[in-house]
Amino acid sequence: MQHISGDNHLRNLLVTISYDGKNYHGWQIQKNGVTVQEVFQNALNNIVGEFSDLKGCSRTDSGVHANMYCISLKINHPIEPLRLKAALNRWLPMDVACLDCKEVDDDFHARYNCKSKEYIYKIWNSETRNPFLNGYVLNYRYPIDVELLNKSAQDYVGKHDFTSFCTVDKRETGDFVRDVKRFSVKREGNLVTMTVEANGFLYNMVRIMVGTLLEIQQGKIMPDGIAEIINKRDRSYAGATAQPCGLYLNKVNY
């Protein structure tokens, strides 16, 4: 990342993008593959040169998509937000798009000012896969009882310790309590969509929630088993981690 030396005229910008995560190793820059942050910073550097304090609203994993992803950053370049949006769309690869750009208060932070996030998980529920959705849905050939899973999922709602629904590594320490505001399971034809909103999410939390619901569908976990799994605070009691391809960061609320 480029850094700006001391300057009294730094402008804080909020940039909103969307991206197809199929070809990226998540948002955050890594040594082992191309990430969304890397291509975004390359585009930004070509336009404004130096920038600082670039912060993403979330850490999405390899293969995960975003309908709305927010970034805060500081520049001392005089470019207007609308012109920066247009310029970013010229420099970004075709699987990343800038949706909006605006100036915000100096202390605004894309992650810490976020009040809640909404994720969706898409499942193609058919014996025949849809080749046009390859990499954008989980292909699941067995019947899904949407009413059953929607009812079971309501036990996720509320403020709980979600240790059982987290892959613990160095990025997750301390408080594992999150406030899930809503969770729904709906069907439209062969497409089943799970939607969850919370004040924050742990590493792999949504994918483990989805995997647990699918194991309820399979009869491996009782329909009323989620509350007990939450109380266990033990990852081994929850379901498998669902594949990343069906997951989308859908909305960020400030």
CATH superfamily of the largest domain: Pseudouridine synthase I, catalytic domain, C-terminal subdomain
N-C termini distance:
26 Å
Structural domain count:
2
Nearest-integer average pLDDT: 94
Question: Describe the biggest sheet?
Answer: 10 strands, mixed
- What is the second-level CATH architecture of the largest domain? 2-Layer Sandwich
- Secondary structure tally, helices: 5
Task: Give the overall shape.
Answer: globular
CATH class value of the largest domain:
Alpha Beta
Our Rg estimate from Cα atoms comes to 20 Å
Indicate the percent of residues in helices: 10-25%
Along the chain, the helix and strand elements come as EHEEHEEEHEEEHHE
**Unreliably modeled segments:** 1-7
Task: Return the CATH topology of the largest domain.
Answer: Alpha-Beta Plaits
Total strands: the figure is: 10
Q: What structural category do the secondary elements indicate?
A: alpha+beta
**Beta content:** 25-35%
Write the layout of secondary structure elements.
Layout lengths: L10 E9 L16 H13 L3 E5 L8 E11 L5 H11 L4 E8 L12 E10 L12 E3 L5 H8 L4 E4 L15 E12 L2 E8 L6 H13 L8 H7 L14 E7 L1
Parallel strand pairs: 3-10, 5-6
Antiparallel strand pairs: 1-3, 1-4, 2-3, 5-9, 5-10, 7-8, 8-9
Helix pairs in contact: 1-2, 3-4
